[in-house]
């Protein structure tokens, strides 16, 4: 159904104000003891650091880092072991004392986090709302660029555009092989702006990591940035969860070893897209999943729990796409369907669409089909093989052709005989034994 998409979609400069760095410990709005402990752990892990290097590791400004270091020195947890002239200033090299090492060991037993300083939950809440996916302007040109290479009805494209503008949730449903996953994953390309994502959030004295290099793609801020380095400038995220989705993935992930939390999938997807692929075939039943998201889908807020039992609210600013082969009416009752306002069916291709997809797939592989070959394939698939015209068949059948040629050690040849053999190898055939 699609050509391979090469290269990056255009990413324009962000129109969202960058977070300003705190200049004092009080302005971080994070418990002082947590930051002092984090600084001490970093000093012990590195065997000592200059104040400038510590500021880089903890992602805080130099004035705030100096405040932390002065506090650690007063408590005799670290000491100065020389000076360094650098960056037109005198820098101090700090090393932990024996007392500092002992206290760091105790801190590590409680929490092994040793990364960028967290941001407070309140700031995270404000930031997510300020860069909401529902505030992004989506135009027909944006959608055309994102869906380039796909063969879709104009009416389907229009409905996809309406769903994207809503920024809420959508069912993409229809038979297998009709391009639901391809369409869903392409929708992320409509967003040309960037957002700020924290490395970690502080909640009730606990650390919750949010930034995930497997999900979030960092961008380089335009010009010289003086932003708060506890935040990373990223593309809007697109999280894909398939059959592996479990109830645990929707809650805070607490590591008994590291003693800190990782954000659930929907929190990592905030301000972006979350695709639930093959919905209805997960380990968690569709009813259980929809029950879990009843409030988030309706009120755009989610509630998470710490191991202590304390609950807290986080924004649920996610465009959720449920891609499924099953009928939404069989998956959800009326209350759930109301909370998923966009329901778009992707049905089998028409003969004309199928032949266009076949032409494009041949073009990608530098193959030149004979006149009438596409029509022959349509007739053979529907009449001889008695199969519907799935959008994925042209790609899959041409792959069969290439595999057969590779096995024989010859150049792939696009012939009727080769396509017929590919069909017989690909489609199941009922035969009497």
How would you describe the overall organization of this protein?
The chain contains 18 helices and 17 strands. The strands form five sheets. Strands 4-7-8-12-11 form a five-stranded mixed β-sheet. The protein has three domains: 31-115, Arc Repressor Mutant, subunit A (Orthogonal Bundle); 124-345, P-loop containing nucleotide triphosphate hydrolases (Rossmann fold, 3-Layer(aba) Sandwich), CATH 3.40.50.300; 351-426, no CATH class. The protein has 433 residues and is α/β, with parallel strands linked by helices. A hairpin with a 2-residue loop joins strand 2 (78-86) and strand 3.
What brief labels describe this structure?
3 domains; 433 residues; 18% strand; Rossmann fold; elongated; alpha/beta
Short description:
It contains 18 helices and 17 strands. The chain has helices at 25-28, 32-46, 51-58, 62-74, 98-110, 121-130, 140-146, 154-166, 180-186, 265-268, 286-292, 294-299, 328-331, 334-339, 351-364, 373-384, 393-408, 416-426, and strands spanning 49-50, 78-86, 89-96, 119-120, 169-173, 194-198, 200-203, 206-209, 231-235, 238-241, 253-254, 261-262, 272-276, 301-305, 311-315, 318-324, 342-345.
Could you please say which CATH topology of the largest domain applies here? Rossmann fold
**What's the CATH class of the largest domain, please?**
Alpha Beta
Q: Structural class, from helix and strand content?
A: alpha/beta
**Spatial ordering of strands, largest sheet:** 4-7-8-12-11
**Shape label:** elongated
- Tell me what portion of residues adopts beta-strand conformation: 15-25%
Number of helices: 18
The CATH superfamily of the largest domain bears the name P-loop containing nucleotide triphosphate hydrolases
The quaternary structure here is single chain
How many runs of DSSP E, i.e. beta strands? 17
Cα separation of the termini? 35 Å
Q: Uncertain regions: pLDDT < 50 for 5+ in a row?
A: 1-14
Number of domains: 3
CATH architecture of the largest domain: 3-Layer(aba) Sandwich
Q: Which percent bin holds the helix content?
A: 25-40%
Average pLDDT over all residues? 91
Rg, Cα atoms, Å: 27 Å
Largest sheet, if any?
A: 5 strands, mixed
């Amino acid at each position: 159904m699609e050509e391979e998409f090469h290269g990056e979609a255009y990413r324009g400069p962000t129109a969202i104000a960058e977070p300003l760095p705190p200049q004092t410990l009080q302005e971080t709005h994070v418990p002082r003891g947590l930051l002092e402990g984090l600084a001490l752990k970093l000093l012990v892990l590195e065997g000592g650091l200059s104040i400038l290097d510590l500021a880089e590791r903890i992602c805080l400004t130099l004035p705030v880092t100096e405040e932390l270091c002065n506090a650690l020195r007063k408590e005799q947890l670290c000491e100065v072991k020389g000076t360094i002239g650098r960056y037109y200033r005198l820098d101090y090299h700090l090393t932990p004392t024996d007392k500092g090492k002992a206290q760091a060991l105790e801190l590590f037993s409680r929490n092994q986090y040793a990364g960028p300083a967290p941001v407070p939950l309140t700031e995270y809440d404000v930031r997510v709302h300020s860069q909401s996916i529902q505030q992004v302007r989506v135009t027909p040109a944006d959608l055309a660029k994102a869906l380039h290479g796909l063969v879709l009805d104009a009416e389907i494209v229009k409905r996809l555009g309406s769903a994207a503008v809503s920024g809420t949730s959508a069912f993409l449903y229809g038979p297998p092989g009709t391009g639901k996953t391809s369409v869903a994953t392409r929708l992320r390309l409509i967003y040309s702006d960037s957002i700020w994502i924290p490395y970690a959030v502080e909640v009730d004295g606990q650390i919750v990591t949010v930034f995930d290099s497997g999900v979030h793609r960092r961008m380089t801020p335009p010009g010289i940035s003086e932003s708060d380095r506890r935040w990373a400038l990223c593309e809007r995220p697109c999280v894909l969860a398939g059959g592996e989705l479990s109830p645990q993935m929707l809650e805070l992930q607490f590591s008994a070893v590291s003693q800190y939390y990782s954000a659930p999938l929907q929190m990592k997807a905030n301000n972006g897209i979350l695709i639930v692929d093959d919905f209805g075939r997960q380990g968690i039943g569709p009813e259980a999943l929809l029950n879990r998201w009843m409030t988030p889908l309706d009120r755009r807020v989610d509630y998470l729990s710490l191991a202590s039992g304390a609950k807290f609210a986080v924004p649920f600013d996610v465009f959720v796409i449920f891609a499924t082969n099953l009928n939404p009416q069989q998956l959800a009752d009326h209350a759930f369907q109301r909370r998923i306002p966009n329901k778009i069916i992707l049905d089998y291709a028409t003969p004309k669409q199928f032949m266009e997809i076949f032409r494009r797939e041949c073009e990608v592989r530098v193959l030149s089909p004979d006149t009438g070959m596409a029509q022959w394939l349509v007739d053979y698939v529907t009449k001889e093989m008695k199969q519907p015209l799935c959008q994925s068949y042209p790609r899959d059948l041409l792959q069969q052709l290439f595999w057969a040629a590779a096995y024989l050690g010859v150049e792939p040849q696009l012939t009727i005989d080769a396509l017929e053999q590919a069909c017989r190898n690909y489609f199941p055939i009922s035969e009497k034994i």
